[in-house]
Amino acid sequence: MISARVRNLAEFMFDTNRAKADVPPATTRGLKKANDRLLPEAAAAAPRLTGELAGSGSSEVHGNTAALVFSAEHAPIIEWFRQGRFRGLTARYGAPPRFAARTINQREDLVVDVIEQELDKPVTADGWFR
């Protein structure tokens, strides 16, 4: 008969349960930090005539969803439209997406790195897993 004894089982269970509870807030923190770093880049990439579009950007994070929101009335038109009277935007600013979504797509590695840093402590359960 082979017997095994688990040492520090209570401590292990406590740490893993605490880690499980810490993952959602850590994810939200990571998304907020990543968004805060992406917002200036997206604003800098926005077309500028008056600066209203670039200045209207904000970062919104709700749970595990993040968004860069540009509240200027013409922001969605500049970002996405390419037909009808907005045909000239493609020649002037390139194909959609033009600034916010393009910045997020180009810098997705930054987003992953920031979230990974925030999740490091909860995921490793205070040193139990490496």
Helix count, per DSSP? 6
Spans of 5+ residues with little confidence (pLDDT < 50)?
Answer: none
Proportion of helical residues: 55-70%
Number of strands: 2
Large-scale geometry: elongated
First CA to last CA: what distance? 32 Å
Please outline the major beta sheet. Answer: 2 strands, antiparallel
Task: Spell the H/E element sequence.
Answer: HHEEHHHH
Number of domains: 1
**Strand content bin:** 5-15%
Could you report the average pLDDT, rounded to the nearest whole number?
83
Could you characterize what this model shows?
This protein has 6 helices and 2 strands, in the order ααββαααα. With 130 residues, the chain is mainly alpha-helical. The protein is elongated, with a radius of gyration of 22 Å. The mean pLDDT is 83. The protein has a two-stranded antiparallel ribbon. The protein has helices at residues 9-45, 52-55, 75-80, 88-93, 100-106, 108-124; strands at 57-62, 65-70. The protein starts with 8 loop residues before the first helix and ends in a 6-residue tail after the last helix. The protein has one domain.
Fill in the keyword field for this structure.
130 residues, single chain, mainly alpha, two-stranded antiparallel ribbon, elongated, 6 helices
